């Protein structure tokens, strides 16, 4: 007989919390990677020019250059 892959269904609230926590952590890590990639792309493009960073939407640079 072959082995059958079992789909684990959470039965308790604790198991459900663990499953949701793992999924949200994976989503957060994916989002963080996308943000870092986007930031590094414009950092290379601008060579650290604050006005260029502001123009391309860096929030922390935007507040630093509004004077």
List the keywords.
3 helices, mainly alpha, 70% helix, 67 residues, rod-shaped, single chain
Strand and helix map with partners:
Blueprint: H1 13-46, H2 50-55, H3 59-65
In short, what is this structure?
The chain is mainly alpha-helical and 67 residues long.
**How would the global form be characterised?**
rod-shaped
Q: How helix-rich are the residues, as a percent range?
A: over 70%
What's the end-to-end separation, in Å?
Answer: 73 Å
Let me know the number of strands: 0
pLDDT average, as an integer?
A: 61
Tell me the fraction of residues in β-strands, as a range: under 5%
Classify the secondary structure makeup into a structural class: mainly alpha
Number of helices: 3
| Major sheet description | none
Count of domains: 1
Ranges where pLDDT stays below 50 over 5 or more residues in a row are none
Radius of gyration, in Å, reads 21 Å
What is the H/E order?
A: HHH
How would you explain this protein's 3D organization?
The protein has 67 residues and is mainly alpha-helical. It has one domain. It is 70% helix and 0% strand. The chain has helices at residues 13-46, 50-55, 59-65.
């Amino acid at each position: 007989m072959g082995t059958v892959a079992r789909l684990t269904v959470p039965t308790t609230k604790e198991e459900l919390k663990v499953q949701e926590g793992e999924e949200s952590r994976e989503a957060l890590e994916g989002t963080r990677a996308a943000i870092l990639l986007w930031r590094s792309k414009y950092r290379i493009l601008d060579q650290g020019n604050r006005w260029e960073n502001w123009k391309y939407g860096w929030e922390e640079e935007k507040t630093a250059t509004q004077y």
